[in-house]
Write the structure tokens for this entry.
Amino acid sequence: MTNDVEGPPCILCVAITGSVPTKADNPAVPITVEEQIESTHAAFEAGASIAHCHVRADDGAPSSDPERFARLGEGISAHCPGMIVQFSTGGRSGAGAERGGMLPLRPDMASLSVGSNNFPTRVYENPPELITWLASQMRAHEVVPEIEAFDLSHILHAIRLHQAGALYGHLYVQFVMGVRGAMPVDREVFDFYVTLMRTRAPEAQWCAAGIGPGQIIVNEWAIAAGGHTRAGLEDNVRLDRDRLAPSNAALIARAAELCEKYSRPVATPAQARSILGLRAA
């Protein structure tokens, strides 16, 4: 049921490519920098105000190449005025300090995982010394981290780090649910996460992302609960069991429809920057 009272603006983040999906999974997955810029622009027009960015090598393999990140960031800024550019420091595309090699480019934001966990076929390692170094690089270059929380301990550790002054800017935590081996799409857990953020970090903002068929479920939970949400081909290549998603824009448009259902205006880039305490575009 649609509410009569308008709620707070909802920030929509588009996760355009990731490190795993290929064109064999869905031909719409953008691989080259040019494809990524075009796909991001369409998602921007559909309502996305944050672009969560990975880059790929010529053969489609994950990469941390700062030059590719630079071209992607410049293209998004040129074609999507005001859009928040968020680079990934994820572990599939590099090791150690290589994961933060793009931070001197000073994107608006960068992802930061503050703990390790299992992925379907490997351990996603985030040792304390790497977390400390990535956080220090983000602080040095004035890059606001988006905490990617795959587990309850990641949320609690992020709150501690922020209280200790180790994280630059305002605290922004994203719950990632549905990765096999990590936290499943579980409503009781989701509700606990939301309560935890409200009681332990009331000034912080939070977001939620669901993987695979859990994407639309978590989108709706987050929007209904007053948080922000993420959609895109990195996390989910299908509209449903029988249909591939035709684009990142289609997945963002679906989230925008849920915003309308729950009387949440879709945040503009300027509103998103204000909510997250980011510098003006």
Q: What stands out?
A: The mean pLDDT is 96. The helical segments are 33-46, 66-79, 128-140, 152-163, 187-200, 214-224, 248-261, 269-276.
